[in-house]
């Protein structure tokens, strides 16, 4: 029954994507650990972490697509859920430092000692345990999303208004986390991590392990999202996106459907954030900035909203471009990103995958006679 | 007449928007199994009346009872729909990205809660019922096409089919034949008459030929309240009705 | 030649005036007292100083100033007190009272009159008391204020003398208050003290409150109950008044912030409210306006530094046109393809905002550019218990002028009529011969131009950097959403309300927490009224 539920959403695109992920999960560990450092096939720890980061962003993009592509909620605040998940993981990693901090205080993280705090705040309790943090990674963003969505959807805040208040939400969180007395390290955030589950966080093998965990999380997220989207619930979500009031007159409580997708999406974003933190080694309030939420939106738009595989592709492509530009031509990166926003909205409203699908649809009728292989022309 | 025996009971319902009285102490009674045609000039309050019954708009004052006991004024749209009131809009609204089949499957009477729909899979009876409706609405050949690719008339029929799938006790139908050819209009009239046997129907229409075709009791709305009620012939002869509507 | 003569004359007068004055009053009266300054011990010096102060003779002022500066010396030969200034290897001596030259002396021939901290305090108090007799009313008033702060009992006699002669009403009041402060702090009779309390209560500022509090709680100086009671009542009354002024000050800050928000949001209200276009590059239009101001000012600095005060006035139309032109260009190239797809305009204009920021960063550099304030926008004035800076005042005035002008433009002009026509029914407007494409472009240009005007104003109070606009975009959206889309009055009320709430929360919650609370408030408010404070109701909206 459950297997059937998870398998029913998988199409050809899913097959390709899951295969690629499986290959990555095998090849990357081998190339990073099983090859000599001077071999052309060798992947440095840095590269592994970079790939892991891209895949975290891919999971974030996937979660965003679930609400934007399928329910029509353009969230400009998904960075909030991502970052909250990241902070939950960061808190666990801070507790793992123990007495190895600069102040050597076994009970308090360094920044609390610095602020002359004498006691661990109540909301830090429990984060000594990995299982607790792992639960919180989804519960905290999920609860926030649930509370926010419960109010917003009930009051029928939609469209642009919803987008703007999601932006206000992440902006407010950013301001709050910048405050030292919030107890999350203020400006500097949480960093200088040492261990995760007892493994040295800097070690190549740990990095590879984190990468594989990210691949697995992305695969699970993808299968789950596919199953949801393909179910009757998914059809209701699409119907809500296209004609919400009509769905209400059919007897569906659309608020609850939106809330379901919204909360699920926030949990996924939280997991992405939690995997991101140990791989980049820091989490700070600037991750909450509305700009990072909007950047995630463009990953989805580039790949193709409403396609699931598109956002994954888009997140990896755009972030690869970002790594390249910021290293080679830092002056031009914002022009490139800005231009991407404009070009995609104007000329690629359905993203790369949408364009590919359009070409495939059009070419057999016109191009089949000439024998033009689909996808070669105009890509 | 007591409210208990009625299917729908409106008494003294008023709604205003920024000082404009869209409904002015409207009273209307629909009996079980009845089909009623509502006519009236633009701005008479026909659409607002539907909005009020289906929960889209809250009345300022007045009583609306369904089946003589359920107060509709305090319920939200989905709750009202689940009581058994279906609505067809003036402009056909079908889910264009979904196939005809999926449109009907979504409408089909079935649990509406998210967790139920998440694990739903169509039973044999469900499929049979959808097939049946496809036959009635003559959309069988189009079952796997996206609804967005249907013609205007087909969309109207699909929407009526979706109402049938919903199996409501009361159907509200807003201008079902707008933009249809004469043949389609006639078929639609037959379809609605078939439905009327098992369901109560309220039809809002401008098309007098169509209303005559239906051959049912007619209510004339004017400035938010009932101007006249009776057979089409009797209201057609009503002096006031001629003044405000038919005479023009 | 001419100028040199003037200088000579001025120098002569400067030297002669005190001398003549002294001669008139009888320099002989002061001379022994001055000689007493050099008597030896600190106590002797202090005694002589008090005596000098007691004369109330302004002629003593330069002597005491010389003492303060450490220029006063005793000539060992005859014990005369002289002003000695370094000249070559020795000192040039002058008479402290008359200023007459007394020749030069060897370094060892004179001894400096030393002062300690206690003496230094007495000196300032004495100077304060003596300048009470200055011919310049402003100097007298400052002297009175100085006494008020020092509360030096020694100044009381001088104060009384000065009060008897004083004719200027403001100076009189300052002196009366100073006298009251001295009396209350000293050992005056109860009746005097109660009277002093009344005077201080009337003054009613923080300083007066401190004094009154001291009097109300004192045990040491043996204040009687009558004085304490009076002081306690006065404290209550002053505190109440200060609270009122504090509230008024907050109100002013709120109004000031509100008008900044209004300026930033009003252009957005046009593009978002009237056209339904989400312009995330709106902040960059503001930023461009600020840089336009910078360039105009640079031009003035280069070619017409004398007219610098007018640079802002020139910058206004320039900024309006530059930002407006950029807006028109954006509308024609991007926005027009996206009408009816608000979320897409949001993304595209966000992309434009990134590119515009980077463009400005590449051209002008990432650091802050300095924009100066014209003289008529610098400084501040006091209004009762309020301190109001001219810069802020002008921004408030300007914000309301822009608002009024826009209102008139939309209501009374043909252009405004076209905008409303296109907004309400595009195809009908088209059919009636309104060129909708042009109206769209100009409307967007208008909104952007107003953002440019906001940039001119903000350049006066904020850092002109490529990130200037980013700081305002979220606040501006909050204002428009809170006020209700499509309603300029809503924007006005929204801006002022959010500005006011923000500033009222700040004293209690701090600036950051206050802002967070405002954001949360808006998020909750939108739940109650999804379409803002002044939303249109009815079917038209839902269609």
UniProtKB/TrEMBL annotation, chain A:
It is found in: Cell membrane. The keyword Membrane applies. InterPro entries: ABC_transp_permease, ABC_transptr_urea_perm_UrtC, LivM-like. It is a multi-pass membrane protein. The keyword tRNA processing does not apply. Pfam families: BPD_transp_2. The chain crosses the membrane at residues 67-90, 130-153, 160-178, 210-238, 259-277, 297-320, 332-357. Keywords: Cell membrane, Membrane, Transmembrane, Transmembrane helix. This is Urea ABC transporter permease subunit UrtC. It comes from Azospirillum isscasi. The gene is urtC.
UniProtKB/TrEMBL annotation, chain B:
GO terms for molecular function: ATP binding. It holds the Pfam family ABC_tran. CDD domains: ABC_Mj1267_LivG_branched. It comes from the Bacteria. Residues 8-248 form the ABC transporter domain. InterPro entries: ABC_AA/LPS_Transport (IPR051120), ABC_transporter-like_ATP-bd (IPR003439), ABC_transptr_urea_ATP-bd_UrtD (IPR017781), P-loop_NTPase (IPR027417). Keywords: ATP-binding, Nucleotide-binding, Transport. This is Urea ABC transporter ATP-binding protein UrtD. It comes from Azospirillum isscasi.
UniProtKB/TrEMBL annotation, chain C:
InterPro entries: ABC_transp_permease (IPR001851), ABC_UrtB_bac (IPR017779), BCAA_transport_permease (IPR052157). It comes from the Bacteria. This is Urea ABC transporter permease subunit UrtB. Keywords: Amino-acid transport, Cell membrane, Membrane, Signal, Transmembrane, Transmembrane helix, Transport. Pfam families: BPD_transp_2 (PF02653). The chain crosses the membrane at residues 251-278, 310-330, 393-410, 477-501, 507-526. It is found in: Cell membrane. It is a multi-pass membrane protein. NCBIfam families: urea_trans_UrtB. Residues 1-22 form the signal peptide. It comes from Azospirillum isscasi. Its main location: membrane. Belongs to the binding-protein-dependent transport system permease family. LivHM subfamily.
